[in-house]
Design a protein that fits this description.
Layout lengths: L1 E6 L12 H16 L4 E7 L13 E6 L4 H15 L4 E4 L11 E5 L4 H4 L1 H7 L2 H4 L2 H18 L4 E4 L2 H11 L6 E3 L15 H10 L6 E5 L7 H12 L7 E5 L7 H10 L5 E5 L3 H10 L3 E3 L8 H8 L4 E4 L4 H5 L4 E3 L4 H13 L1 H15 L4 H22 L1
Parallel strand pairs: 1-2, 1-4, 2-3, 4-5, 5-6, 6-7, 8-9, 9-10, 11-12, 12-13
Helix pairs in contact: 1-16, 9-10, 9-14, 12-15
């Protein structure tokens, strides 16, 4: 079978904007090429082939499609190119899909933020973030349309049972059309083998000389105002100075986040790092006292697994797929329960026994998720779709 993979989103790696979805798409593509010696693959890239695409196999190739606009390329250019190449199945790993498909299609829908947490989604795509009312409105409508379009593909992969329930409830998608394939984590990537001096130099480079708590992601649904207020409550009950480091796009830091910092008097304690190269994230996890991840909604929650793999304890919300992913290895609280989040922070800062227990459980939990298993599950979806097509024929 000749399989096409939509790699048009990989161009964002050049723009210094890594995300969970891009990391997923890259990992599942690399591992598909590694485990599948039977099918032929064509990866469609926008403007260049990313150097992160490491595992090109004898039966795989790339095709560069030139375009300044990824949305238009994906909607119209990708179907045309895949038809020219005789692709029999087209895989869309980026939460979106082409307008028309000349062949069978599989899409991964990572989450339904635009429908489940509409207020936070609209804030993340507001004029304040995108710098223009028209552009922000187009983005909001585009992503809602994309998800509706993607849900109509032949098979839909989701990363959790929680997201599958959302698909059924929001779109009325038939459950037997949806395949749950968990995402993974590269244990070796997040295993730190450096010295204390290496960590000290790293911390100094980001102005993190004092102990710090880590938040990953700056979009509105990450609940950063809640994280800041919970951090403030915990900090007031501690004797030593504590910092809060927030990774992610600085442009997505909205006025309500800065207002929370100002009202809590934390201007010197909250540090925004902007985007962090993937190679440095393991240092952030390793150096942090804990990951604080109180999202209003997650379709999966890769940072939780990354922290587990790094031996870092996790305080997370009980929203979306986070209980499903974290199991009993994290302390969970309602994202609106600031006192509960603050108690969880204090627990890890003061109870060494509880901390060690959760670190042990986290390492064991991370071992249950691998990108090889993700690719194997994805390939199984491809094969079932092909078998169903052959049976109908």
């Amino acid at each position: 079978m000749r399989i096409g993979i939509d790699g048009t989103g990989f161009a964002e790696l050049d723009e210094g904007a890594p995300s969970g979805i891009i990391n997923y798409a890259l990992a599942v593509t690399n591992h598909l090429l590694e485990i599948d010696g039977e099918n032929e693959y064509i990866i469609y890239c926008r403007n260049r082939v990313p150097h992160d695409l490491l595992r090109l196999s004898p039966q795989s190739s790339t095709r560069i499609l030139r375009s300044d606009n990824r949305k238009i390329l994906q909607l119209f250019g990708l179907p045309r190119a895949s038809a020219e190449d005789g692709v029999e199945l087209l895989f869309f790993p980026f939460n979106s899909a082409s307008l028309f498909c000349p062949c069978r299609s599989v899409v991964t829908i990572h989450d339904l933020h635009p429908f489940v947490v509409q207020e936070q989604f609209d804030r993340a795509h507001s004029a304040e973030v995108h710098g223009g009312g028209i552009k922000s409105r187009i983005n909001r409508h585009y992503w809602r349309l994309m998800l509706r379009l993607a849900a109509r593909k032949d098979r839909v992969i989701v990363p959790s049972e929680a997201t599958k329930r959302d698909m059924v409830n929001v779109f009325g998608t038939k459950p037997d059309k949806i395949d749950v394939v968990y995402e993974g984590v590269d244990i070796e990537q997040f295993r730190f083998s450096g010295s204390d001096e290496d960590l000290a130099r790293f911390r100094s480079g980001y102005g993190l000389s004092d102990p710090f708590i880590l938040c990953v992601g700056s979009h509105a649904y990450k609940n950063l105002p809640g994280a800041i207020r919970a951090f403030s409550r915990a900090r007031k009950k501690m004797e030593k100075r504590l910092l809060l480091a927030i990774t992610g796009n600085k442009a997505a830091v909205t006025s309500d986040i800065r207002t929370a910092i100002r009202k809590e008097g934390l201007e010197d304690e909250v540090i925004f790092t902007d985007f962090v190269p993937d190679g440095e994230m393991k240092l952030f996890y390793r150096a942090a006292e804990m990951l604080l991840f109180p999202s209003f909604y997650e379709g999966f929650g890769l940072p939780v697994l990354e922290a587990f793999a790094s031996g870092t304890p996790v305080v997370a919300s009980n929203a979306g797929a986070l209980p499903e992913v974290a199991g009993d290895a994290a302390i969970l609280a309602d994202p609106e329960d600031l006192d509960g989040l603050a108690r969880a922070i204090l627990c890890f800062m003061t109870d060494d026994q509880k901390r060690a227990e959760k670190v042990r459980l986290g390492l064991a939990r991370a071992d249950q998720f691998s990108w090889t298993e993700t690719a194997t599950g994805t390939l199984a979806v491809f094969r079932r779709l092909e078998e169903a097509h052959a049976h109908r024929s």
